[in-house]
Amino acid sequence: MSHDASKFRNVLVLAATTAAAALTLTACGSDTPSDGASAGSSGGASGDVKVAAVIKGLDNPFFQAMEQGIQETADESGVEVSIQAAADIGDTTGQADKLSALAGQDFGCFVVNPISGTNLVQALAPIAAAGTPVVNIDSPIDADAAAAANLDPATYIGTDNGAAGGKAGDFVLENVDAGAQVAIIGGIAGDVTSGARVDGFKEAVGDQVEIIGEQAADWKREVALTKATDIIAANPDVKAFFAANDDMGLGIVKAVENAGKTGEIVVVSVDGNSDALQSVLDGGLSATVAQYPYAIGSLGLQACQIAAGGTELPETVESPTALVDADNAQQALDAFPQPFEDFENPLEDL
Known about the structure:
Its main location: other. The protein is an alpha/beta fold and 350 residues long. The protein has 12 helices and 12 strands. It has 2 domains: 3-153 and 292-320, Rossmann fold; 161-290, Response regulator (Rossmann fold), CATH 3.40.50.2300. It has a 6-stranded parallel β-sheet with strand order 2-1-3-4-5-11, with helices on both faces.
């Protein structure tokens, strides 16, 4: 593990432990007895707050790393956590059902990573009505839908998706000629996260390249493979692709390989999953804009501890991103799932 990754992990543990200690002090001053320590724990803060987390599908390595960040931070700070995941990226109803099943249980805070801006709002309404804090991570809850349900999340923790797309756009400009043909593969049509990444990319490249098409591939590798195959066949001079996530980026890489154009077409995506980092190292993906799902999950758990203890959180907490290309792919892979660049915990002072 790199020095920077170790430093980040130490800061996470310190903040989580500090939050847990604060909750213990709060509970000691209360006339209400705690629920007791969770099974297998050594007591302490785990009896003072129980956290429920509902995230996207673990079929995607991004959310596997997010789950790891939540679980390990809970373990290190002695907090009892229950993590439920959707079956896959399209399981909007199933994800909402899992949240509804947790809503009636005795949790002091909820971490939610919704599939869409609205699919968890109905399930969150009774949680909000009970005054239980909700921490929104990674994918934002739709503001209008939240307001209609009287839902006011304690904070939103996630990537600046516009900036992430912008980093990808800057990379493309550095690696193709002016006026080059470029294609864009987005996630689910209308998705806020995908839209922000695509908009950030477009803003970065401006009119310096020719965007020949923009298609949605539902965040799925096989769909992106099909879409990219068709784009390359119809536009043999295409020089670059931007994909709004790594799974789609890897599908595009396969399409480029099938067309015999590896090394001729730049492919850059967003996420920084381990398989994408390996692809960059192997010369498949040209670059990925790495998010840190481990950090997002860890920060979400910490924010829940803080909110449950009655401390107000900032409206938005930004998680870091970094461009990974051939020059630093090994460093990023060695540190995965933690950040490979120095990052100060924004919740440390809380």
